[in-house]
Amino acid sequence: xxxxxxxxxxxxxxxxxxxxxxxxxxxxxxxxxxxxxxxxxxxxxxxxxxxxxxxxxxxxxxxxxxxxxxxxxxxxxxxxxxxxxxxxxxxxxxxxxxxxxxxxxxxxxxxxxxxxxxxxxxxxxxxxxxxxxxxxxxxxxxxxxxxxxxxxxxxxxxxxxxxxxxxxxxxxxxxxxxxxxxxxxxxxxxxxxxxxxxxxxxxxxxxxxxxxxxxxxxxxxxxxxxxxxxxxxxxxxxxxxxxxxxxxxxxxxxxxxxxxxxxxxxxxxxxxxxxxxxxxxxxxxxxxxxxxxxxxxxxxxxxxxxxxxxxxxxxxxxxxxxxxxxxxxxxxxxxxxxxxxxxxxxxxxxxxxxxxxxxxxxxxxxxxxxxxxxxxxxxxxxxxxxxxxxxxxxxxxxxxxxxxxxxxxxxxxxxxxxxxxxxxxxxxxxxxxxxxxxxxxxxxxxxxxxxxxxxxxxxxxxxxxxxxxxxxxxxxxxxxxx
Length: 482
Prior knowledge:
Layout: H1 3-10, H2 17-20, H3 32-39, E1 48-50, E2 53-55, H4 57-75, H5 102-105, H6 109-137, H7 147-169, H8 175-189, H9 194-205, H10 217-232, H11 238-246, H12 283-293, H13 313-319, H14 325-341, H15 347-358, E3 370-372, E4 377-379, H16 385-394, H17 403-417, H18 424-437, H19 447-450, H20 459-481
Antiparallel strand pairs: 1-2, 3-4
Helix pairs in contact: 1-4, 3-6, 6-7, 6-20, 7-8, 7-10, 8-9, 9-10, 10-11, 12-17, 14-15, 14-18, 15-18, 16-17, 17-18, 17-20
Region (Disordered): 238-281
Organism: Micromonospora polyrhachis
Domain Fido: 345-474
């Protein structure tokens, strides 16, 4: 075997879905530590700096490669990803936190072997999380669905997978390579011929993703829509692509980066009302139908608190907003105090927090129809709407359902009931924060949760949101213990 062939045989960037699919490759995490100790040769000395030269780096890298070959021989090609670290490590742009690189991760014999086993388990968990997500998100053609509906299902799936990968790789050096790979894996799992993958994904991304730069909501949305339309065979939607680029000024359309400094937010009366043609006439009605079809009891496991580390990702997200961060931070403080006291979630509480968010003396339930996403979504109004919404809020603390399901559902309830004239995306975030904090859960990562555009009629996306919250809680709890 040549040096190039040897490298390719353990390179994680070249792995295909059949090679990593957990269903095809059994793995016992409890035995991983014993396996690593059995197959790894004695570790070399930790590389050290001598006169501005790192001595022992070549030996360390050869030993790491030998460990990879041994693990691949034992488990299969998928195991080569154990050292695919975040950022600039042995390979560029991976999802593994534990291992950094041969030059920095080799310490004592015992610590190094334990770190390898931990990293192998972490890599395997990532593959298992992806496999579970693929099963939930994979769009299945249905004779009752129009191509447009199927495209929307693909769009939601792609956006969630991109955001998951962004969060996992921290959008560090070379992160987009693994993002392309995850999308290709998903296409394989969904039955899209491999011969189409390169063109489909390349055309959709088109240079939008860059090292050390987290993609904006608009970029993720446009990539997801372009890929979805190409998979389904629909022509590219210039109207939708333009909306992803140019409607950041619409309140509640994107949860970050609006209003832009060079754009005036249109008034309610000026919002276009003819954009709902050829779409569902009432997105609130669509949400109520989707809400009823989701099995919230099984959408996620029950993972109650406590789960918190020293970081509050939602607080950090709010602090980075270019506009209104002080008001929203003050509202979050009010939510934390209310969560500590316990009790039900009510519209009166939401309205109190919303007054702080908007900096106005009074807010009430909207008295007429509402629009969002540049007029592409419309929510009708009827006299019983506020009472129905209040009932949905009381369900957010129903302990008979898993916490992630309740948090996801109330987030979407606020988004699609659209109770306020403005600030509904922020209100939805506060409601979710309250439901989690009430059970002592404070997420230390939340980007995939806050930056994905949700569709009112997407029951699969709603269930997927519950599962995403479950994964974020699990990850926070794992880091709490470490």
